Amino acid sequence: MAEQEDQRGGDGGPINLWVADPGFETDPRIVEAFDYAVRRGCTHYFPAAGFDEFALPKAVAKYYLDGFGANLDPLGEVSATHGAQEALSLSIQACTRPGDEIIVPEPTYSVLIEKLEIFGVKPVFVSLMEEDSWRLDPGAIASAVTDKTRMIFVCNPNNPTGTVCSREDMDALAAILRANRGVSMLLDECYARILYDGGAHRTLLGERELMDQLFVVGSFSKAYAMTGWRLGYVVAGKKNTERIKRLSFEYNGGVSYAVQYAGAVALGECSDFVERMVGELTRRRRAMLAGLSELRDVPCVVPQAGFEVFPDFSAYSRNSKALVAALEKEARVKTMPGVEYGPSGEGHIRLVFCSEDSERISEGISRIGRCLPPRRS
Fold this sequence. Notes:
Layout lengths: L1 H7 L6 E2 L11 H12 L15 H14 L5 H4 E4 L1 H13 L5 E6 L3 H10 L2 E6 L10 H7 L4 E7 L11 H13 L4 E5 L25 E6 L12 E5 L1 H15 L4 H13 L1 H23 L14 E2 L10 H11 L2 E2 L1 E2 L11 E4 L5 H14 L6
Parallel strand pairs: 1-10, 3-4, 3-5, 5-6, 6-7
Antiparallel strand pairs: 2-8, 7-8, 9-12, 11-12
């Protein structure tokens, strides 16, 4: 016991406020569904006799029909992927070539920015409006479209800011697509089920005339605490879905049918699990925001969704990487530098409230407050 206390330290050891991995066990019904599929023989290239190979696409289509009134063809417009990461990569590759441009409202999902560099696609950054709770600026997005623009990326709900696009914002995005038929839109909807204060998520999938321009990405990692299962999907028009499925086959041959079956059960039977998790996340969000409110000159937009906050520490440092490194060393709190999420993120730090309980979150913010450098003059 003494050795364990020495390793963790008298204050409880390092605190994780950086990895967006929900600290909840996967619902037992999902685990049991996977076990059932494996026992029934879903251990080969194709599903066992009696299993529907389109169980997951059908469940995704039903989710969008029941929740948003979107009528999808599960066989022709839904692709299972190895997590949202692969879904984003395949969507970009299906739509772009090196030298093309993608408009990226930012701050945004940091890995998307890394992907564009790997694929040789140029990001054209458009700042979100921090003074308006990090809202989209549809006018700036429309003005950024050129003859090299092939795609617009929108993370909604947004990671790292927690902003949710309003109906007006989504209508404006739809208008941009109608005015630019050669431009596609990649919508990251991975946090669509983690909403607070009665918020509502909106998608463009009900706009059937835009279907050939849409790539909508979803994930089971966040809402169902399934980060290690590596399961996601893309919804797109039929021609783009064919491209995605060809690319996916060349990379990995497809997603395990047992995992897909588990995902179908998650979508069909586990809404109550999501509700309970959001209830606990609401308490953790409250602890995070209460702690930040005690810090002097650290403004923070209240997140409407997800489990990240993006407070502004520029009163103390404009170098978010240096500040994050100092806090990890001196406060033993791990966070993420805001500049990783785009140019507008500099001076901010991303904190998550999903991996630690409320007490540890409060302790983490207190440590940060005690270790902040002197305020900049």
